[in-house]
Amino acid sequence: MSVLVAIRGYLISLLLVAGATVICEQVRPHLVPTNMVMVYLLAVVAAAAKLGRRPAIATAFFSVLAFDFFFVPPRLTFSVAEKEYLVTFLGFFVVGVMISSLVAKVREQSLERERLSQEAEKARILQARENLERALLNSISHDLRTPLVSIKGALSALKEQGERLTPEARRDLLETANDEAERLNRFVGNLLDLSRLEAGALRPRIEPCDLQELVGCAMSAMEVRLGDRKVTLQLPQGLTLVSLDLVLMTQVLVNLLDNANKYAPAQGSIEVTARICGAWLSLTVADRGAGVPEAELFHIFEKFHRVQVPEKTGGTGLGLSICKGIVEAHGGSIAARNRPEGGLAVEILLPLDQGVEEP
């Protein structure tokens, strides 16, 4: 490969000399031969800048031969009638070599700086990737360990002090263990769903679904977690069937309701709104919480990204990224915005003309 590159460089050197010769031939009636040397020097500089030191020296050598053959009397021979041209040849060749060396050195330094810059960029990207992987591993370890510690603590207390505990205390410990087990189960489920989405193994089964049934399934799944939280529904009149995967879109709504439930104030309501926007179905879940800093709005759908909200229980950072994956698998889009009156609104757009899969 290097031999071919070298041959290519020398061939280009010959082309540069041929081009300089053509130019000199065009201006020959107007210039004395010694002035044409400058044209050949330009060819040498171009070769040094683009091809390197050796092709540039070859260009200087070929230039001397071409200049002698085509323009030094007697023309079209390598004979030299006037001996001072020998000095011109020597001076031209020496200057050509010096220019070649200097330009080639600058070129090599430039290439070296570019190489070092690329290596530094690769090292920076590798370091950033390692930091991200370490952060993800720490995050996953923390999310797995936290509920396990709570479950183990509750069960140990029941085992060691069960007979001495009051019925209320035993019930609280059992509820704590149950809640943490559900939390752990959701986290593992989210990890599995995310893996399936990234592997392309999760494909929506599109079929006509009742919009009210979709919302009802999500509300039913969230009934315990929502507790006394008020949820207002606004569904479009006359629209009953929408083509989508009921199971997957139920999970999307559950994740959005769960997210709103975490960040809404204690007495704040959650609003679920559906409407038709041309050929799209718009589903919005909005809360009355503190919203999200503007700089983070574009990142909240990234996996393991968590919005830091004081005095709130953080999520796993997977729910919204799973929503995004499922919605995009439906050919739709999802976006979040802060509401002018306060709170966060997450809107899903789904195409109404999706094809229904044959059973």
Fill in the keyword field for this structure.
alpha+beta, two-stranded antiparallel ribbon, Helix Hairpins, Heat Shock Protein 90, 359 residues, single chain
**DSSP helix fraction:** 55-70%
Would you list the SSEs in sequence order as H and E? HHHHHEHHEEHEEHEE
Largest sheet: 5 strands, mixed
The counted number of beta strands is 7
The average pLDDT is 83
How many discrete domains?
A: 2
CATH topology of the largest domain: Helix Hairpins
**Class based on secondary structure composition and strand pairing:** alpha+beta
Radius of gyration: 38 Å
What oligomeric state is this? single chain
Helical element count? 9
Percent of sequence in beta strands: 5-15%
At the fourth level of CATH, the homologous superfamily of the largest domain is: Signal transduction histidine kinase, dimerisation/phosphotransfer (DHp) domain
**CATH domain class of the largest domain:** Mainly Alpha
Based on the coordinates given, report the CATH architecture of the largest domain: Orthogonal Bundle
Shape: elongated
Low-confidence stretches: none
User: Widest sheet: strand order?
Assistant: 2-4-5-7-6
Measured between the Cα atoms of the first and last residue, the distance is 57 Å
EC number: 2.7.13.3
InterPro entries: HATPase_C_sf, HATPase_dom, His_kinase_dom, HisK_dim/P_dom, HisK_dim/P_sf, Histidine_kinase_KdpD, KdpD_sf, KdpD_TM
Keywords: ATP-binding, Coiled coil, Ion channel, Ion transport, Kinase, Membrane, Nucleotide-binding, Phosphoprotein, Transferase, Transmembrane, Transmembrane helix, Transport, Two-component regulatory system
Subcellular location: Membrane
